[in-house]
Amino acid sequence: MSTARRLTWTQLPPGIREAVEHRLGAAVLAAESQDGGFTDGVAARAELGDGTRVFVKALAAEHELAPDYRAEARVAGALPAAVPASRLRFSLETDDWIALVYDDVEGRHPDFGRSEDLAAALTCVERMTSVLTPNPLPSAVPLTTPLGPLLRGWRTMRAEGAPAGLGPWSARNLDRLADLESRWVEATEGDTLLHADLRHDNMLLTPDGTVLAVDWAWACVGADWVELVYLLPAIAAAGRDPEEIAAVHPLTRRADPAAVDAFLCALAGFYTLSGSLPPPSWSPHIRTHEAWYGRLCRTWLARRTGWS
User: Fold this and answer.
1) Rg of the chain over all Cα atoms, to the nearest angstrom
2) Closest Cα partner for 225 from 200, 257, 199, 182?
3) In angstroms, rounded to a whole number, what is the distance separating the alpha carbons of residues 34 and 32?
4) Is the dihedral of CA 110, 301, 126, 241 positive or negative?
5) What is the pTM of this model?
6) Which value, to the nearest 10 degrees, does the dihedral of the CA atoms of residues 60, 62, 68, 70 take?
7) What's the 3-state SS for the chain?
8) Higher-confidence residue: 16 or 3?
9) In DSSP terms, which residues pair with 100 in a beta bridge?
10) Please, what is the Cα angle at 69 between 89 and 209, to 5 degrees?
11) Residue 191 CB partners (closer than 8 Å, separation 6+)
């Protein structure tokens, strides 16, 4: 299913298209829009007049997500070469638009329901955290900068009232959930540069079986195991048991279970509350996605805590 409602390359203002082509040194002959993700910016695989291909992202400079694009440009352009990620050629702002241009990656999003795809994705996470520990980017922000305002859903519901349709387990345990959520900041301290937004549509499986991480807009610094726990709801969405993976993967196997519980609880609270809100105009499907992930996180958390 298409989750994004995107502009196309040809709908961009002439100024930004001309600036991109000037930097590339070649004209864009054709551009195929990609329909994954949840934003309304341009995301297109482009064929150039010199026979090469690139991936172009573009967004209006006044869009509420524009700071994320600028953050992505800063991080993606500074990642060590050993990180399994797509390579940023350049970024620019002109004609009131932001553009990021990457080397095109031949591949597809991994299907976590397929064992070989899942194994490749888990290997990617382990490799990423190894290369990015300690954090190689002095300017990288702590985990609390992007996630601090978001991961307080249970506490917000306790203070302001639960949304309509909050399930009986969540309502019955709201105080305990809010208290557990309050511990996530201390629980996730660390010195690993995290992608912090891994899902299947932010990963690409290449023909040689390697998985790369794309879209580094939320990159921040925290505990290495956070990367895997953030990804596990997407793996659960493919019908996999997240606890089976967490129990054996090196990152979570050596993590403090109480710390994992606190962060998982915070994720569950965010998805639960945000999934109950009206969708933004630029992303009609994002609330459905968040509500689904909220259910997955709550189911996993109930199993880990044993709360009835």
Assistant:
1) 20
2) 257
3) 7
4) negative
5) 0.94
6) 80
7) CCCCCCCCHHHCCHHHHHHHHHHHCCCEEEEEECCCCCCCCEEEEEEECCCCEEEEEEEECCCCCHHHHHHHHHHHCCCCCCCCECCEEEEEEECCEEEEEEECCCCECCCCCCHHHHHHHHHHHHHHHHHCCCCCCCCCCECHHHHCCCCCHHHHHHHHCCCCCCCHHHHHCHHHHHHHHCCHHHHCCCCEEECCCCCHHHEEECCCCCEEECCCCCCEEECCHHHHHHHHHHHHCCCCCHHHHHHHCHHHHCCCHHHHHHHHHHHHHHHHHHCCCCCCCCCCCHHHHHHHHHHHHHHHHHHHHCCC
8) 16
9) 57, 91
10) 55
11) 133, 134, 135, 221
State the pLDDT confidence band at 37, using cuts at 50, 70 and 90. low
Q: By the 8 A CB rule, do 140 and 221 touch?
A: yes
Query: In the chain, what's the furthest Cα-to-Cα distance?
Result: 62
The residue type found at 248 is V
Is the separation of the CB atoms in 127 and 85 below 8 Å? no
Q: What are the pLDDT digits (tens) for 228-264?
A: 999 999 999 999 999 999 999 999 999 999 999 999 9
Residue 222 predicted with pLDDT over 80: yes
- Of 137, 152, 9, nearest to 71 by C-alpha is 137
Q: Take residue 66 and report the two structure tokens written for it.
A: 């524009």
Quote the CA–CA distance of 226 and 224 in Å, as a whole number: 5
User: pLDDT category, 84, cuts 50, 70, 90?
Assistant: very high
Token pair, residue 301, equals: 């958390």
Give the residue carrying structure tokens 């809100």: 277
